[in-house]
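Take a careful look at the sequence and tokenised backbone pasted below. I need to know what the token row says about the fold.
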Amino acid sequence: RAERYLRWEERQQVARAEAKWNTYVERLWKVGQARHSASQSHMQQNGDLKSRIQTSLIEQITERQRERGEQIMESIDTKLAAAARRRRLAQRGGRYGLLERAFGEDSVGFDAKYHTVQTDRRSPSWRRSAEEWASQSASFDGGGRSMSDSSLHRPRA
């Protein structure tokens, strides 16, 4: 009977040890799960923070680029306006406006050399007309030269 009691006592002790071990393992499992999910959530938080920082940096860079572009556009506009002012001043003949005073406001844009009529002296109609003028002028002075000279037939350079 003592032997049975010792075996029973030993089985009870093993059962208690297994129960304690199971509770210990369950607690370890719960702690491991909590830490694992905490590390995942920590990694997720780090990822979210990283993405927010990156988007903020991108927005700041775009804003800086936009501001720099506006500054460049403003400086280019002021330079172009100054160049246009200098060009108008140079066209008007300096800063005193002598051309406008002498010839009026429209005198700046008018250049006579582009508005003269040019005749083509090589065409047959002009040669006939010149021959007639030459013959009429010869009758007045008595000895005009003929317009059919070789000098008239030379092409213009």
